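Retro notes (design track)

What went well: tokenization of the new backbones is finally stable.
What didn't: we kept losing track of which sequence belonged to which structure.
Fix going forward: every design gets posted as structure first, then sequence, in one message. First example under the new rule, 350 residues:
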């Protein structure tokens, strides 16, 4: 978890720096340019709209910024008429949410409109002198955020590739721990492999979601429309790797009972280690945007070696693990770009 946390920090460092600078600039514009003594909502709007991730689609940024502005405007207008209090919060929130649903179908728009209206009514001490003072601050922050998102275009494939490399690396690390556990008959290593597999689900989900969002963004962006096909492939690879991880977790769970008993697991351990290395190669190729052909060929060669009676002769307990490894290899082959039929054709008949 610490390692995953540092990876998130590295990915978020540049976006956080950009959003922080935008928030400071928004405050300065509202304070020195508009003469507002405490333009609280200028940096709030900029930060909410930009966030801490590289997923800064102009439509999403505009939706968030507009939601903040609408919520602040409605709260500003109504609080000057009806004051503050629990009843006023309920009234302003309901109005802001319903207006948000009327203006835009996006959930983010309505959510931000409601949240900011609550803040306006609940914090009357922050009121500006005019009924629309805080709305102007929010507008400044939102416009600045939209400018940053528009003028700082990023290749949508970069983030998807980075998260995909992290997800495949998790598969490779799980398999390495499992191979060590099988070779040494070390149940703790097998448990470590299973724990890593369980902890990796968030990054797998993140890969699938970011690939889908990047593909939808590229479809409406003239600059990145040519990348739609690759992003669709990356989205499909995310699904395949998610299946591979699920198979790897099942393999680790089944291995716990096998390492407790007397079985000849040397051949299986070596095969699992080779699959881990191939998965690591695939992670590197995917992360760099390079050709996945070499990793695909290596995985295909490993798939052709998964005859249970050759890997672990006369041991049906260990042979059942080889059968699980076959499914995992098919998933990795598909993630590497092989068609489903082509991937399965590499498996020896049993």
């Amino acid at each position: 978890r610490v390692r995953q946390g540092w990876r998130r920090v590295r990915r978020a460092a540049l976006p956080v720096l950009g959003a922080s600078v935008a928030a400071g600039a928004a405050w300065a514009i509202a304070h020195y340019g508009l003469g507002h003594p405490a333009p609280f909502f200028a940096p709030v709007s900029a930060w909410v709209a930009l966030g801490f991730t590289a997923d800064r689609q102009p439509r999403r940024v505009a939706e968030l910024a507009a939601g903040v502005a609408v919520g602040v405007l409605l709260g500003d207008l109504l609080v000057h008429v009806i004051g503050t209090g629990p009843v006023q919060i309920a009234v302003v929130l309901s109005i802001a949410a319903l207006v948000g649903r009327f203006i835009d179908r996006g959930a983010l728009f309505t959510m931000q409109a409601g949240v900011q209206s609550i803040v306006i009514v609940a914090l009357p001490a922050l009121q500006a002198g005019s009924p629309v003072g805080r709305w102007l601050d929010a507008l400044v922050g939102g416009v600045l955020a939209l400018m940053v998102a528009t003028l700082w275009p990023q290749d949508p494939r970069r983030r998807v590739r980075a998260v995909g490399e992290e997800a495949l690396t998790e598969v490779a690390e799980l398999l390495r721990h499992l191979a060590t556990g099988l070779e040494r008959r070390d149940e703790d290593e097998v448990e470590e492999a299973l724990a890593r597999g369980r902890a990796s689900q968030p990054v797998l989900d993140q890969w699938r979601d970011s690939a889908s969002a990047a593909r939808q963004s590229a479809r409406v962006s003239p600059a990145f429309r040519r990348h739609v096909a690759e992003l669709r492939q990356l989205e499909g690879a995310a699904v395949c790797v998610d299946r591979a991880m699920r198979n790897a977790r099942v393999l680790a769970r089944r291995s716990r009972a096998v390492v407790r008993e007397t079985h000849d697991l040397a051949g299986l351990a070596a095969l699992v280690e080779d699959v881990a290395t191939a998965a690591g190669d695939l992670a590197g190729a995917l992360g760099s945007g390079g050709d996945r052909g070499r990793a695909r060929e290596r995985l295909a060669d490993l798939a052709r070696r998964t005859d249970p009676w050759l890997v672990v002769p006369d041991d049906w307990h260990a042979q059942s693990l080889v059968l699980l490894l076959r499914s995992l290899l098919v998933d990795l082959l598909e993630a590497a770009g092989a068609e489903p039929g082509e991937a399965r054709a590499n498996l020896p008949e049993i």
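Added context from the reviewer: The two ends are 40 Å apart (CA to CA).
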